[in-house]
What we know:
Chain A is mainly beta and 336 residues long. Chain A has helices spanning 135-138, 253-267, 269-276, 289-292, and strands spanning 6-10, 17-18, 28-35, 42-48, 52-54, 57-58, 63-70, 72-74, 77-79, 83-87, 96-98, 102-108, 116-117, 131-134, 142-143, 155-162, 169-175, 179-181, 184-186, 191-198, 200-202, 206-208, 212-216, 225-227, 231-237, 244-246. Chain B has a domain at 16-79. Chain B has helices at residues 14-40, 42-58, and strands at residues 61-64, 67-69.
Amino acid sequence: MARPHIEPFCDRDNHFKPMRLLGFGTGMHYKMLSMDTDTGACSMTVQFDGGYKRTPGFSWSEYEFIVIEGELKVGDRTCRKGHYFYVPAGYALPEISSDQGCLVLYMYNTGEPSHEEATEHHPSAQTQLYHDVDSYMDIPWAAGNVAKPSVASGCMIKLLNYNPNSFAMTFLYCMTPNFYQDNISYHDCAEESYHLWGTSWMMQFGDVPTGGYFWRPAYINHGAFASEYGCIALGRVDSKLFNHFHYNPWSTPVENAERSEARLLARDPLLYHWAFSKDHNHPHSPKDFEMFMPRRGDENGHDTEHKSDGHRHDHWHGHHHHDDHSPHSHDHHHDH
Amino acid sequence: MTFKNLYIDHERSSEAEEWVKEELAEQEERFAQIEAAMEALAPTREKWYQEFFDRLLTNGFNLDGDDKMPIPESDLPVKPADRKDQVVWKYGVDSDDTPRNGKEG
């Protein structure tokens, strides 16, 4: 059932717990923000004690993290607040440590937290996707109009991570002091946010302060919006962000989803009729011919199918192997 | 989530299995607390809704960015008589028992 609706929640109201999963060592404490009931994927506020050290290694899940306060050493590099990392599954990070302690937001996207001690990447790791950036110092704020219709001016973003297939995004966003936006919004995607600093307000949930958090499934109303003194937060969406604005606070998720469907019909009638035609209804997902067509470079009968449900080996952006003999698990069945 | 869907199959240890189970149990409690708190906020929220409607009549509704349009009073929505003010939906559409096209309940 994925993650439940956790909104609003403030981690400052809870105590840190010692991490007891193997591999993480001592001196790591966490507050759970949300967890996927199927996979164990989760988001956590993490406190590393002064003197903490973790061996080099990788996780079976992809994960992201951003330094909230203090300094974190990753190998020889000292990373300060605002430093963001995207780490593919199987990507071996060097030793991490903190001399004075630090606070970090961790997000494991496809499985529970895990740490396998290793100095080399797993053969299935898509190492080329790894990236990190000092998001406070090295990325300028941009207008928040990444989606149309857009948020009001005064809400700005810094894009940190982007999936060109699903349009999922990780981003920093801020609201300037006295920001307000008088509409109610919902999206066709789940949305997550953690307030790194400052307070914002939403008409359904009240104030979200520093340390405030939400995980919101698709089609749930939120807004109007305001921030008296401004705020900065890390946000994520799990697929394309589209702002469906309206002003009915009593509409339900099903009514909102049906409105999205009606708007899809109005906007893309041919696609809508094709997708919803019984003759063309695919029980699992429609087929993208680019992922299946024979290609001149296909090697040795390799299965070119591209499928992804978060639990199988996936070529999300092309065709790349580190090891021709790496295991595959393309076990979907597409019935037509 | 469908961020980049990168996951490498492995066998989850019994220790990890137990940890996930405990965290999910705590999450159930956390959700129940949130749900109760949001139900308790309903009277305040009702005032916020009325203030929102007042601003729509005067300052206008944010259509797109800073483009705003005043909403005539006759267009403001009426709360359905049989519907409580619910803002937390545990699994979104899957936890919504609103009749779908009058066919499902």
